[in-house]
Amino acid sequence: MIIVMKPQAAQSSITAIKEYIENSGLNAHLSQGTEVTIIGVVGDKSRLSTENLISFKDVDRIVPVTETYKLANRKFHPDPTTVKVGPASIGPDNMTIMAGPCAVETQEQLMAIAKAVKACGATILRGGAYKPRTSPYSFQGLEEEGLRYMQEAAKETGLATICEVVSHEAIEAAVKYVDMIQIGARNMQNFILLKEAGRSGLPVLLKRGLSATIEEWLNAAEYIIAEGNPNVVLCERGIRTFETATRNTLDLSAVPVLKERTHLPVIVDPSHATGVYKYVAPLAKAAVACGADGLMIEVHNDPAHALSDGPQSLTFEKFEKLTGELAPYIGLAGRSFR
Ligand code: PEP
Ligand code: MN
């Protein structure tokens, strides 16, 4: 449930309710807006009396929250969240572009890509060091060595960094080298990994599972936040449908639906969604137009020889063209960029 306080409720009234909730063995989460304060209650509600709560001073009303995700719920936290990622941030004011190779291949490759994407306005460098591939015989990533290259590229360029994690060991390593961790589509419902990501202290990008509903996805985000980590960003990367012309089907309708249901930032990955470089630009523009807070785009110095996802990767020239073309869309969306 949420407790909506009267406008200008006294701090002492808010504190009294918070204490009552906590003394009943539940958790109280405060969302202090400019006008109204909302207190979100998480825990076993049978231990609380609604009649008692409504009689507290300065309480306006009590609203049940029927959804199973609470901390990710927009009812708990009406204002949109901004997530800080090293020197970058993801939220309603900016259009944050994460770009880089599918996989970190060599130090020289990563450094060249980092410089190229930075020059075009990206603020976060992406690069996979642990690659969960469909085939066990495909390139599996450089692991910790790849993370070290990410850190070096960040030092040289000032970019923030993000890397996918697939295990406890990968999280332990990532904490030493990068600014944000990514939970990939294939691990969206790996609940043990989600909890560990929640305890890592790093912001988390949570990709949508290949066949996950929006409700399942928000519950996965709840697992991370429930561990005390509110810095979660959602990434729509296409879902599996009957269509085979693209690698997945980009569900852009998820963006406005999520904006209604959650306060968490939402970004879109047209690269993994389509699997085809020439479809990346039109869908990136559409994502900006429908309210995304950012984009994740795969960029490679030599897509024809990339160790993974070459067909969907943009060359430096194509990425530069795309960011130039995106600028007016970003302006119309009322966001800043670069
Ligand atoms: C990736 O971003 O490198 C990746 C593997 O994406 P996804 O989990 O969306 O397939
Ligand atoms: Mn990829």
Strand and helix layout:
Layout: E1 2-5, H1 11-23, E2 27-32, E3 37-42, H2 50-54, E4 59-63, E5 83-85, E6 88-90, E7 96-100, H3 107-119, E8 124-126, H4 144-157, E9 160-164, H5 168-177, E10 180-183, H6 191-199, E11 204-207, H7 214-226, E12 232-236, H8 254-261, E13 266-268, H9 270-274, H10 277-289, E14 294-298, H11 316-332
Parallel strand pairs: 7-8, 7-14, 8-9, 9-10, 10-11, 11-12, 12-13, 13-14
Antiparallel strand pairs: 1-3, 1-4, 2-3, 5-6
Helix pairs in contact: 3-4, 4-5, 6-7, 10-11
Residues 102, 128, 164, 184-186, 207, 237, 272 line the site of phosphoenolpyruvate (PEP).
Give a verbal description of the structure:
This protein is an alpha/beta fold. It has helices spanning 11-23, 50-54, 107-119, 144-157, 168-177, 191-199, 214-226, 254-261, 270-274, 277-289, 316-332, and strands spanning 2-5, 27-32, 37-42, 59-63, 83-85, 88-90, 96-100, 124-126, 160-164, 180-183, 204-207, 232-236, 266-268, 294-298. The strands form 3 sheets. Strands 7-8-9-10-11-12-13-14 form an 8-stranded parallel beta barrel, surrounded by 7 helices. A 4-stranded antiparallel beta sheet has the order 2-3-1-4. A two-stranded antiparallel ribbon has the order 5-6. Helix 3 runs parallel beside helix 4, helix 4 packs parallel to helix 5 (168-177) and helix 10 packs parallel to helix 11 (316-332). It is elongated, with a radius of gyration of 21 Å. The two termini are 40 Å apart. The relative contact order is 0.12. The model has no long low-confidence stretch (mean pLDDT 96). It binds phosphoenolpyruvate and manganese (II) ion. Manganese (II) ion (MN) binds next to loops.
